[in-house]
Amino acid sequence: MRWPVPDASRSFADYVRATREGLQRVHAGKPDSERIVAGNAPFEMHPSGDFPCGQAKPYRRGVLLTHGLSDSPYHMRYLADFFRQQGFRVMALLLPGHGTQPGDLLHVQWQAWAATVAGGVQCLAEEVDEVYLAGFSAGAALSLRHAALDERVRGLFLFSPALAIAARARWAKLHRLYSWALPRAAWLHVLPDSDPFKYESFCLNAVAQVHALTHSLPLNGVKVPVFIAASADDATVRAEVTWGFMQQSQAAPRRLVWYATTEVGLPGVEWVQSAVPQRRILSSAHTAVVVPPQDAHYGESGDYVNCLHYVDEGGDHFAACMSTHSAWLGEVLPQYLKYGVLRRLMYNPHYAQMEASMQRFIGELP
């Protein structure tokens, strides 16, 4: 598939339409293809309610939403609806290489993702006085990078931000020296890919691109208001870098919602106890922050469970994880795996509390 890129020469609706048409061709003939396309397609929303218009444009505020690596716009739907209710014009992107099949990430470059974000900002800036960016994981990194380059950006909302990942990821690109002869060597994991809204198989190029992206980030803080929600127990990104970044960001307002099992008390930090024993939740997780418990797919009673950490082990762990009703939930870290069968947490039991915190943050914006 050739991924369209939004730009100000056409409407964002045209970009959405062109991308949907491409996704429909890719997923044609699959069971439930309409649902698959709807979850993977970019989308837009207009504010509901009586909100002030812009001075010379239709809307005062707008937000561009960017999903994470291997994810899709499905993961941004609840945030989008929240921003719509707060009076924001909403636009949500699909990054190149996503929404189709995992192999489409084998040759993508992070610069193509950045260009898509830049094009989305151009579209949004045509309609709003104040541009805000919101991103999850790698989408948060892309949002931060663009904010450092574009003075039109008035603030950031970052969720499980991929500001730094493991140093060993820099060697992921070496697979190109030999994967032409050993195609399997281009992949970190080849997994069932049963999730229609997120790749489960993971190629090394994708890791290398995110690692390169993180090295372009201004980790000494930014000069615009920042809201961050992150897990101290994140197994995907280096949570301590997120903590350090927030402490260096000086613009007001700034707020860090910090999901952790150990209490912290610092200005600008809202500690949330991530363990919920009565719901068999041991900790929060990278994957959990932006999805509420009521989501029909990833939520508390959803039709998808994440047991991918057991696939490579063999034995009965994967089957037990998929079938049991008494599994623990949390991040896939050794201290939690020792409790027994563990599913990776895919929803945020404190999502409503996070939205309330975001609403207070928005109320403090200049």
How does this model look, in words?
It is built from ten helices and twelve strands. The protein is of the alpha/beta class. The chain has an eight-stranded mixed beta sheet, sandwiched between helices. It is globular and about 65 Å long. Mean pLDDT is 93; it is low at 171-182.
Entry keywords:
366 residues, two-stranded antiparallel ribbon, 10 helices, 29% helix, 12 strands
Span between N and C termini? 42 Å
Helix content: 25-40%
Count of discrete alpha- or pi-helical segments spanning 4 or more residues: 10
CA radius of gyration is 20 Å
The string of secondary-structure elements, in order, is HHEEHEHEHEEEHEHEEHEHEH
Q: Strands of the biggest beta sheet: in what spatial order?
A: 1-3-2-4-5-8-9-10
> How many β-strand runs?
12
Structural class: alpha/beta
Describe the largest sheet.
8 strands, mixed
Strand content: 15-25%
Low-confidence stretches: 171-182
Structural shape = globular
Mean pLDDT metric: 93
Topology diagram in text:
Elements: H1 12-27, H2 33-40, E1 43-45, E2 59-66, H3 77-85, E3 88-92, H4 110-125, E4 128-136, H5 138-149, E5 153-159, E6 187-189, E7 202-203, H6 204-214, E8 226-231, H7 239-248, E9 254-260, E10 269-273, H8 317-323, E11 328-330, H9 334-337, E12 342-344, H10 351-364
Parallel strand pairs: 2-3, 2-4, 4-5, 5-8, 8-9, 9-10, 11-12
Antiparallel strand pairs: 1-3, 6-7
Helix pairs in contact: 1-2, 4-5
Give the structure's gist in a few sentences.
By secondary structure, the chain is an alpha/beta fold.
